């Protein structure tokens, strides 16, 4: 679970194309029947050990107006609090940091990973999607997305076209989406590699404020994302269905995290300065996704694999598996296992050496570094009358950053530069 990927429009595009790809064949009589509204609700809790906590509520409504004219609308509200890693390295002595707003400071104890404990955000997201037949054996889908946070606005449109072959046993789909995001972080956008000022280094409050303002760019910035997704779904037999997708994403604009920094250390590993990170202003990603579902007499097996590569040199592999086992006609249990592996971006550096000078791009954010992660959990569901369903999900998540090949200087050899992130996820969902 990557909490920073909160505006991933590829997810909305995938949902649109999967809706088209997974739409079942219906009879002519059933097509003309207007179905009642169907609602899905869920509350999710995500809590990292001594770090970020998130609570999310989701309300989704779907209605078939007849003839496969289907509308889906979704509202998502989430709140995030807690401590977020800054990217700075720990030190054998206490450290002082300036908060992103520039109005306050905070201290980090000796040997502790620097975390900014004022991480607060609330997001409201609205999604709408419409799907309908276009002409014989074709279906179209289009949608809108709006997401607003304190310092972030995201707006997107998406569309998809699907065609059925072979008596609707084969479906090919093409999806396209465009997103526009506006970023206006608290305190302003940091100047790339500008040194973080500390109040203790200035004779007056005004001198400090002038120095802080010099490290900031005024106004907001934006980024544009274009996603293309091509998919094919094949019914293998009466029990097995398989899906294969290829996606490409091109992002252009402000991709730097304004709240991340790097430590500049000497040959003894002692911090000489703290500078703000800088990332490239464009990124192109390719991904291939494969999924197979197999219906057993006692449940459903679901396994998928995703490979992603980009021009930041980040390659990732994701293996996801679920096994739904029916305990009774009205109850089921579904174990879940997910494994993730990622290589580091070519500009990832856990710290900068004072003797080397500044590079063009650098980030110490562990989320663009080398890592492995796994999720292990279980879901329990109860099928109620009239198609209603109540389900509970509990999962454990662990992310293990890795050293991609840096030799730690001096005191950094005795400090944990790549601590694991552990989290618990709990969800309650109700369909009616």
UniProtKB/TrEMBL annotation:
<dbReference type="Pfam" id="PF12094">
    <property type="entry name" value="DUF3570"/>
</dbReference>
<dbReference type="InterPro" id="IPR021953">
    <property type="entry name" value="DUF3570"/>
</dbReference>
<protein>
    <recommendedName>
        <fullName>DUF3570 domain-containing protein</fullName>
    </recommendedName>
</protein>
